[in-house]
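Technical annex B. To support the medicinal chemistry partners, we prepared a structural model of the target in complex with pyridoxal-5'-phosphate, based solely on the information shown next.
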Amino acid sequence: MKLRTKSVHTGVNIDKTFNSVITPIYPTSTFYFDEIGKNKGYDYTRSGNPTRAALEANIAALEGGVNSSATSTGMSAITACLFFLKPGDHIITGDDIYGGTYRLFNAVLKPMGYKFSFINMRDLKKVKAEVTKNTKMFWIETPSNPLLNIVDLEAVIDIAKKAKALTVVDNTFLSPYFQKPFEFGADMIVHSTTKYLNGHSDVVGGVIVYANKEVQERGRYLVNALGVSQSPYDSWLVLRGVKTLAPRMDAHQANAIKIAHFLESHKNVKKVYYPGLTSHPQGDLIKKQMKGFGAMLAFELNTSKVSLNKFFKKVKYFALAESLGGVESLTESPWFMSHASMGPEGLKASGITEETVRVSVGIEDADDLIDDLNQALKGS
Ligand code: PLP
């Protein structure tokens, strides 16, 4: 079965009571037993719920995993993954990961004794040099948020396997439609399903997808023990959203390519970061491991011509908002908003500047979006 068909059908056909075509929502906290030890596969919604199970089967099929755990947010999925480890263990990750992930690692887990190397993961020599006998996990975000740097999945996962460390890939930016980290040997994939998988900016959620039974067993145990599983209502919303993943991603990307070219040609834009531009320095790697470019882009605004606030005030179709991956276009400042928790030093190290603008390109008409950007980019 192809991805488009899986996203519509996998897991959804579970109602044997009334043959409902759409997966019902089971808004129950608990399930009765027919007798001790005999129930219909569910006992308590934190540990399992049929609506959530449908979503978990669906996303696992899209990524090519054995199963998944749908969680309350993307951050709770990430937190659960880190509970595979213990204080003293060492994690190698990028210096340009999502700000919330950086905050969890640096400000919450580091003081508890977890060790982190935040490095430029494009530099494979550096990645190898960071490995110690305590290295237990490689945390990979590719393309990175917000500068769209690409990490070589095959090469880094190879280094991780030699070190006998787990690899987790945050695949939020591309979704399984454009990137399949299990094809390169990752152990787990996480998503903020808040973003493209749900796609409509009306729910927060996350998922951990498991490549094999071993990580599945531990992961599902942890999600239940930590109590971070997703509610039946939110699971149902994400399942509804995921059915249109493929056509949405095609529409998002078609717009993003046009907008990236427009921005690149604009005199008040200093630089554009987008994997679909020939100016992206990692073209060969992009061809090797990505099936598309996605619809996230960033650019450096010439703020001596147009101030950040003026740009954000003038755009009509790009809401000034954090988050990404919904059908509507959004824009924001990583320095002042999504990545502010990295602090000025962390931001500078990762290459983010006060002039960096991040754009999540929606599925509106590309001409309208370009006209809107054009009027907002006019200098005074
Ligand atoms: N991973 C990435 C790449 C993100 O962009 C985000 C949120 O923006 C998260 C994880 C966290 O997800 P959530 O906001 O659903 O907790």
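Notes passed to the chemistry partners:
The chain has two domains: 3-242, 245-376.
DSSP finds 14 helices and twelve strands in the chain.
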